[in-house]
């Protein structure tokens, strides 16, 4: 510690970015005010000033943080450094607060930001869960409650997208034997744009909030307070991260695989990451568009969704769900990929039906584009759309079923051990099962007429998110933690974390489903005790807090283990995957000094003389 | 082979336990409409499918966790990489199952929409944050939904402002209420039980969404006809008393109190004759002309402190006499100095 170089905090990209963001906001407000003065209008009008300020603030953040610097140099033909970090002399912690082009650093940046953002969103949930523990209004007022549920939703989504980014960015190059992503500077851009965008979303809390929930349906969102605009534009810019990050993943996978690694020999997570990226690349535009249209309706009176101006409120829902349904597959596909990746390692046998699992990821991604209107069965859209969308929605169950059956096939006659990552993997399967099986009743229109917009949906959705993202993400962190840090986490705390979270989650999720069936609506601050849901709500709240505490234990475990953990072996799980054949921590340029050729199948555990890779140690990297 | 027999028995046992357990629980509020019966029947089939599939996966998992756990460090599992016929089977069978369920879903949907030519009509009008029911066959309105038992009512939903959703849990079916011309949507209800229920708005519609409720009273046909006759005569009594009735019926009560406490809109207590400060800083006297304008064109003059609230143009659904009554009712709540 004593030898740590003093770091000028204004040399950190994060700090410079935030300072520039504030300046950008003021500049934007100033420009709007000036234009209004020149037009002879009253100088100050809050909404256009804040919106234009918000847009400029994101641009200024990126300039201030230095995201564009290399591109600027390249445009003028100036040389750029080959090194990942602009200032390699910085201490390690400072590198993570700075621009870096190393996909591993960016992966960690995504991951830490994700945990932070999920923590903020979880805190919002704790506030409104406290309110809901009993009927009546005790702690919050109605508008604050409505803002909280909307923020919980959207901030969680941002946190999940960041977590997905963490897994894809950190793992894909390592798993395919690449030295980095195809476009390292674009990778940094895709991460850093999240920071000012997330700040915009959270700023809505201080600008009147918004009372629409995360779905932002007009006409309500067209008349909500100013916070609505910050929500719209924050999400709009987060979308850039998804689109560009996805592009990078697809190109990296196509172009940078190690020699001999054909598509059927890639570790299975890569298939999941590519399927996810295909959705992110092609669907994200629509949520940006839908939010931009409401924003413009508010600013310029363009009546897209205003019946008095020839608009139609249903149009928004089509645009919104065209992204927001496939988006849930963006959240879960990487997690399902993690499950498939970890099961063979801990069961010590091949992944059952590799090609079927790989294709099922693409199948889910594809079918996911044809089901969006199942969110609108009661919305009053054209009635003839309901039956076809019911059939297409039910099809999602088929590739999802293939995954479950193949996982069972992988466990069958294995030799399973139950370290923390495996526990979370098994927990993920059981919870995702609960989430998946509570889906078909929502998909068949008739039953959805009852279930739609009730707490049943809340239960279904949280089960898919915990089973499809939270549990696998946590499993992935425990699994790769020794590889990332070179230290071992505490197994004891990991198991405590698991059991607390698993049991609490079952109570929470089943409780939510039960409350919904009893008639509890979504998104209400106060409920009618006559429905008989009060005891259930108390249980849900207790379970919610337990999950929160379990996550605190998780973060404590990680932080403590980085500081004081036992040194980890290079390959503690006996994995066949290439990254575990590298020393820990992984060298800056991954395989540059450890080139390998793929000579076998990735999951041939227990088969004699069937190596996956051979390393050409001592040689320099040979391009394919 | 021994493994398979044991695990199949385990799955069967779990299925029966979970399925009968769920079937015997009271999962939903009592059923009170014809349309809901088809929904409940389908949901019951879902329950058994869920029970079986949950037990199938969990049964195999639990069995594997116990029986196929690692006993020594360097053990490996049996080596098999997949089984294509099996994969095809567990693609085709679920496909057939989900298509069958979708088919059942379509049939049940059609049943909930089966039209009775003798159905009579009620328009359910949502506004922030109250419901009004226009009995269009008779030409009166009500703030509570009264329905005769065992006769179909065709509910048309619509909204005066944002999206709401019409839902009575005991009747099962749900339909959003949309703003705009030609955006009325249909919902058919045939109540089977007399009693009191509640319409609960199921689409987040702003601040007081949680409290956007209305009473539903299902009556014997005779009692219902009698109620219709009473409504047709209109509320009797003085203008103030009628105004108090309209205050409830047109949903004024959702935002305006009569006891001086501000809610979403200004209170009506002591409002008449008072000097009111508007959003632009000007001051007007709340006389009859002002009140009438505020009812007919709520955005014309907005009171300071209520700039963020958009009142629907409710006056356009009222007759001039009803507006006179409401003004008389406001007068009766005391005047400003």
Structure description:
The complex is a heterodimer of chains A (624) and B (337). Helices cover 63% and strands 1% of the residues of chain A. With 624 residues, chain A is an all-alpha fold. Chain A has 2 domains: 13-76, no CATH class; 104-593, Up-down Bundle (Cytochrome C Oxidase, Chain A), CATH 1.20.210. Chain A has a two-stranded antiparallel sheet with strand order 1-2. Residues 618-624 of chain A have low confidence and may be disordered. Chain B is of the alpha+beta class and 337 residues long. Chain B has 3 domains: 2-68 and 82-112; 120-233, Immunoglobulin-like (Sandwich), CATH 2.60.40.420; 239-332, Cytochrome c-like domain (Cytochrome Bc1 Complex, Chain D, domain 2, Orthogonal Bundle), CATH 1.10.760. Chain B contains 7 helices and 12 strands. In chain B, the strands form 4 sheets. In chain B, strands 3-2-1-5-8 form a 5-stranded mixed sheet, with no helix packed on it. A 3-stranded mixed sheet of chain B has the order 4-10-9. A two-stranded antiparallel sheet of chain B has the order 6-7. In chain B, helix 1 runs antiparallel to helix 2. The model of chain B has no long low-confidence stretch (mean pLDDT 92). Chains A and B meet through helix 6, helix 11, helix 12, helix 13 and helix 14 of A and helix 2, helix 3 and strand 7 of B.
Helices and strands, with pairings:
The complex is a heterodimer of chains A (624) and B (337).
Chain A (H helix, E strand, L loop, with lengths): L12 H26 L7 H20 L3 H7 L16 H4 L7 H30 L9 H35 L7 H9 L1 H10 L23 H29 L12 H33 L12 H35 L6 H14 L18 H10 L1 H15 L8 H18 L2 H4 L1 H7 L3 H31 L5 H27 L16 H31 L31 E3 L14 E3 L9
Antiparallel strand pairs in A: 1-2
Chain B lengths: L1 H23 L9 H34 L16 H29 L7 E8 L2 E6 L4 E3 L2 E4 L4 E7 L4 E4 L6 E4 L7 E5 L5 E6 L12 E7 L1 H13 L5 H11 L25 E3 L5 E3 L2 H9 L23 H13 L5
Parallel strand pairs in B: 1-5, 4-10
Antiparallel strand pairs in B: 1-2, 2-3, 5-8, 6-7, 9-10, 11-12
């Amino acid at each position: 510690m004593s030898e740590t170089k003093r770091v000028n905090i204004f040399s950190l990209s994060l700090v410079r970015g935030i300072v520039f963001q504030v300046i950008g906001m003021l500049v934007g407000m100033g420009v709007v005010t000036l234009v209004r003065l020149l037009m002879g209008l009253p100088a100050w009008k809050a909404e256009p000033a804040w919106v234009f300020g918000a847009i400029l603030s994101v641009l200024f953040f990126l300039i201030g943080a230095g995201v564009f610097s290399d591109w600027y140099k390249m445009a003028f033909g100036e040389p750029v450094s080959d090194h990942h970090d602009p200032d390699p002399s910085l201490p390690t912690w400072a590198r993570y607060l700075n621009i870096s082009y190393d996909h591993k650093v960016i992966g960690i940046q995504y991951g830490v930001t994700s945990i932070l953002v999920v923590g903020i969103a979880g805190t919002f949930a704790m506030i409104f869960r406290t309110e809901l523990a009993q009927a009546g209004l005790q702690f919050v007022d109605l508008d604050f409650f409505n803002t909280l549920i909307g923020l919980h939703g959207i901030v969680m989504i941002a946190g999940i997208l960041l977590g997905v980014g963490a897994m894809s960015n950190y793992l894909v190059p390592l798993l395919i034997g690449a030295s980095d992503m195809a476009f390292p500077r674009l990778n940094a851009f895709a991460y850093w744009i999240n920071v000012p965008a997330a700040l915009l979303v959270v700023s809505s809390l201080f600008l009147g909030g918004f009372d629409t929930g995360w779905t932002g349906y007009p006409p309500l969102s067209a008349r909500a307070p100013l916070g609505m605009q910050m929500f719209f534009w924050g999400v709009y810019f987060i979308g850039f991260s998804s689109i560009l990050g996805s592009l990078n993943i697809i190109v990296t996978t196509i172009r940078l695989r190690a020699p001999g690694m054909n598509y059927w020999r890639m570790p299975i997570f890569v298939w999941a990451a590519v399927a996810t990226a295909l959705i992110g690349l092609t669907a994200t535009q629509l949520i940006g568009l839908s939010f931009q249209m409401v924003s413009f309706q508010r600013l310029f009176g363009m009546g897209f969704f205003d019946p008095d101006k020839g608009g139609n409120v249903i149009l928004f829902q089509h645009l919104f769900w065209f992204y927001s349904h496939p988006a849930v597959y963006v959240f879960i596909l990487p997690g399902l990929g993690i499950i498939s990746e970890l099961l063979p390692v801990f069961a010590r046998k091949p992944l059952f039906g590799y090609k079927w699992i790989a294709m099922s990821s693409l199948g889910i991604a594809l079918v996911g584009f044809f089901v969006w209107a199942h969110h609108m069965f009661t919305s009053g859209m054209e009635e003839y759309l309901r039956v076809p969308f019911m059939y297409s929605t039910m099809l999602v169950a088929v590739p999802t079923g293939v995954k479950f059956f193949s996982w069972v096939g992988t466990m069958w006659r294995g030799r399973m051990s139950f370290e923390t990552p495996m526990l979370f993997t098994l927990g993920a399967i059981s919870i995702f099962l609960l989430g998946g099986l509570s889906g078909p009743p929502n998909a068949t229109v008739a039953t959805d007429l009852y279930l739609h917009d009730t707490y049943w949906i809340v239960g279904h959705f949280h089960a898919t998110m915990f089973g499809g993202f939270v549990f696998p993400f946590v499993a992935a962190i425990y699994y790769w933690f020794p590889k990332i840090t070179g230290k071992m986490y505490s197994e004891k705390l990991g198991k405590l974390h698991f059991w607390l979270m698993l049991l609490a989650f079952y109570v929470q999720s089943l409780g939510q489903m039960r409350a919904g069936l009893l008639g509890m609506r979504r998104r209400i601050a106060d409920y009618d005790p006559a429905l008989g849901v009060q005891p259930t709500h108390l249980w849900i709240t207790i379970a919610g807090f337990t999950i929160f505490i379990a996550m605190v234990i998780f973060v404590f475990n990680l932080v403590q283990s980085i500081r004081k953990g036992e040194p980890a072996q290079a390959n503690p799980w006996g994995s066949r995957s290439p990254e575990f054949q590298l020393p820990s921590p992984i060298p800056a340029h991954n395989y540059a000094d450890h080139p390998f050729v793929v000579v076998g199948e990735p999951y041939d555990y227990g088969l004699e003389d069937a190596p996956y890779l051979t390393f050409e140690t001592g040689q320099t990297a040979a391009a394919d | 082979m021994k493994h398979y027999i044991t695990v199949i028995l385990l799955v069967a046992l779990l299925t029966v336990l979970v399925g009968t357990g769920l079937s015997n629980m009271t999962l939903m509020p009592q059923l009170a409409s014809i349309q809901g019966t088809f929904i409940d029947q389908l949901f019951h089939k879902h329950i058994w499918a869920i029970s079986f599939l949950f037990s199938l996966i969990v049964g195999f998992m639990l069995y594997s966790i116990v029986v196929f756990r690692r006993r020594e460090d360097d053990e490996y599992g049996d080596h098999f990489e997949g089984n294509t016929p099996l994969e095809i089977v567990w693609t085709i069978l679920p496909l057939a199952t989900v298509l069958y369920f979708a088919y059942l879903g379509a049939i049940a949907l059609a049943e909930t929409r089966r039209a009775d030519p003798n159905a009579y009509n009620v328009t359910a009008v949502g506004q922030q944050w109250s419901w009004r029911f226009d009995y269009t066959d008779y030409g009166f309105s009500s703030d509570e939904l009264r329905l005769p038992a065992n006769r179909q009512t065709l509910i048309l939903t619509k909204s005066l402002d944002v999206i709401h959703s019409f839902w009575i849990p005991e009747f099962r079916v749900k339909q959003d209420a949309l703003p705009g011309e030609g955006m009325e949507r249909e919902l058919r209800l045939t109540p089977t039980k007399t009693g009191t229920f509640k319409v609960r708005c199921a689409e987040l519609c702003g601040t007081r969404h949680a409290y956007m409720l209305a009473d539903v009273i299902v009556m014997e046909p005779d009692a219902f006809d009698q109620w219709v006759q009473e409504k047709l005569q209109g509320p009797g009594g003085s203008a103030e008393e009628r105004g108090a009735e309209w205050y409830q019926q047109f949903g004024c009560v959702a935002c305006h109190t009569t006891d001086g406490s501000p809610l979403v809109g200004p209170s009506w207590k002591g409002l008449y004759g008072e000097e009111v400060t508007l959003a632009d800083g000007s001051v007007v006297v709340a006389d009859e002309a002002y009140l009438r304008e505020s009812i007919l064109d709520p955005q014309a003059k907005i009171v300071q402190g209520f700039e963020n609230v958009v009142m629907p143009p409710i006056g356009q659904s009222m007759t001039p006499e009803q507006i006179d009554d409401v003004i008389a009712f406001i007068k009766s709540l005391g005047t400003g100095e």
